[in-house]
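Lecture 7 notes: from sequence to structure.

We start with a single chain of 285 residues. Read the sequence below before looking at the structure.
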Amino acid sequence: MRYVELAFSVPAAAAEECAARLVDAGAAGVEERDATTYERAPEGRVLLVVWLPPNEVAPLLERLRIEDLGDVAVAERERDEDEWRDAWKRHFTARRVGRFVIVPSWERYAAADGEIVLDLDPGRAFGTGGHASTRLCLEALSAVARAERFLDVGCGSGILAIAAARRFPNARGAGVDVDPDAIDVSRENAERNGIADRVRFSRAPVDSLDGTFDLMTANIQPEILIPMAPLLAARLAPDGELILSGILAEAAPPVDAAYRAAGLAPLAPLDGEGWRALRFRAAPR
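Now the structure, written as tokens:
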């Protein structure tokens, strides 16, 4: 089957907003390429790539409004579905992050003692371990000592909820996302990893969930994380740990301040490739 690949080259500061507008305009998924990914973008810029059937290209471009985002360039070319799959197989191989090893379905991997394998292919929702913000979350999860009940906010592919379930075999949890496609992908990945009976994925608002959680993760933009600080802090169990990512290092101070103001104690953050994961702990009983 033939597809059209649209590649939007945008300033790094406008990437999140442009990706959101692409989804609003009808893109089922957006691949982000920057200086940290296998397919690299030029320094200071991000490539946002979507694939569409040829008849859907013009309607999406007509709905898309990006004139106010600065210097945005769009490249278009026809691609074959098999070519797309083969490109992923060349670049997406088994990778170790903390205690975890992310293994695509076409790879054979013999886990060493202490390694936790996550079976995950690249797909139509964010979170394959290729982006620094996801890797920082996995590194932080590797250091968590215990969890009985966990929650991932903005679950994307489900990778963080699946990692928590594999890390803590007796724990149960949930993942939530506003994107119905992300929920479908998360459920598929949970089945593949054999933890579907312990993790519930839904579009439910955080404040509608029952009880509290002793481990929470959220790999989403600062403009979403900051206003959610009181809500997430209220759902964190005593002595529970919260991991926040999706934050550029220079954008971290206001996020940090918001969660301190919500009553959480900061733990040592993790930095990598210009991104930062913030860690907090709730007061003990």
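Residues 221 and 246 are 5 Å apart (CA to CA). Keep this in mind for problem set 3.
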